Amino acid sequence: MAAKVGPDAPLASRDEIDDIEVDAFIQAMARRHGYDFSGYAPASLKRRVQALVQTLEMPHIGELTARVLRDDEMVSQVISRLSVPVSEMFRNPAVFRKLRDEVFPVLASYPQINIWQAGCAHGQEVYSLAILLKEAGLYDRCQIYATDFSDEALARAQEGIFPIRDARLYSENYLAAGGRQTLSDYYHARYDFMKLDARLRERVTFANHNLVCDGVFCEAQLILCRNVLIYFSDALQDRVLGLFRSSLSRGGFLCLGNRESIRFAPSARDFVPLDAELRLYRNAGGTL
């Protein structure tokens, strides 16, 4: 029996209307601007779009869709707010200590070390990595590619400026990660901000790259992509893991976020755990 579509059809709930409007927003972003959010986890994307609508003081998601269709300047603002650029320096210090103690000695065997920080957000983890590589004497042999699909996030990452209120937490994380000096050796404090030493950017290339639709970015011995995959659907997670597998040299390392798991992804078959609890893996396939 066909569903009712006339005046006696049941009214859609507010939640159902939001779902329809989110679908329209996804289509508008893809067809008008080339940003494909269709592979993102639906519930997470819906919450972020709703939060964006509230922040912009719009009456409904349909208004946001109309704006991105007609106002090109609106797009960068939307992208920056949907990219979830939330991080901290040396987040989950045990991961950075593991990298320092077990991964860096392997990387030291390479004459040139390529590292890809995918989804770098505002750059806190990029600078964290650079500091530990300097202390391990490896930084001058490294090329770090820090990518994100938000140009606004990349611009902030390149500045290397963070609120001074976070300095205490960052310093505690640094020491817990096995830092050998004091974090204040790597930044200058002025007013309410800390500016990281420009030398930490000497071996870093910031570039726009969209994990949803772009291809292999570089061949790397280490890829970090922490707490990004949790916002993707299962199919998109598998696609991105396949991208990482193709980008890693054989025996290369993949570091994911502590809320992410590759256990059920078909592309995970080529990854073997170095430390499953810390979400640190090695690539058993890939190129030599």
Structure summarized in a few sentences:
40% of the residues lie in helices and 18% in strands.
Question: Which features characterize this protein?
Answer:
alpha/beta; 2 domains; 288 residues; three-stranded antiparallel sheet; seven-stranded mixed sheet; Rossmann fold; 10 strands
Describe this structure in words.
The chain is globular, with a radius of gyration of 21 Å. The strands form 2 sheets. The chain has a 7-stranded mixed beta sheet. The chain has a 3-stranded antiparallel beta sheet with strand order 3-5-4. The chain has helices spanning 14-33, 42-55, 61-70, 72-82, 93-107, 124-135, 151-159, 167-176, 234-247; strands at 113-118, 142-148, 161-163, 187-190, 193-196, 204-208, 220-225, 248-256, 271-275, 280-283. The chain has 2 domains: 14-82, no CATH class; 93-283, Rossmann fold. It starts with 13 loop residues before the first helix and ends in a 5-residue tail after the last strand. α1 (14-33) packs parallel to α3 (61-70) and α3 crosses α4. With 288 residues, it is an alpha/beta fold.
